[in-house]
Amino acid sequence: xxxxxxxxxxxxxxxxxxxxxxxxxxxxxxxxxxxxxxxxxxxxxxxxxxxxxxxxxxxxxxxxxxxxxxxxxxxxx
Length: 77
Fold this sequence. Notes:
This protein is mostly beta strands. Helix content is 0%, strand content 51%. A hairpin with a 4-residue loop joins strand 5 and strand 6.
C-alpha cells in the first residue's frame, strides 16, 4: 500500500531564501505515474523526510531547533 506512493517535501521557495524567509511546507503524495494523490501543509519548517514503511510513519527533520517530527500516515493514505 505505502509502496504505491512517492512522498515529496515542497518548500515553496528558492534556495537563496532558505532558511532566512521560511515559507509554508507541504508534503505531496504522488503515485508512480506522477499524479498528485494528496497534498497537506505542516506547521513545522522541515527540510528532510523519511518514511517508515513498516509502521506507516513519516519522519521530518527541521533545521530550526534541530528537531524530528513524526506523522502518522494511516489516516492519510
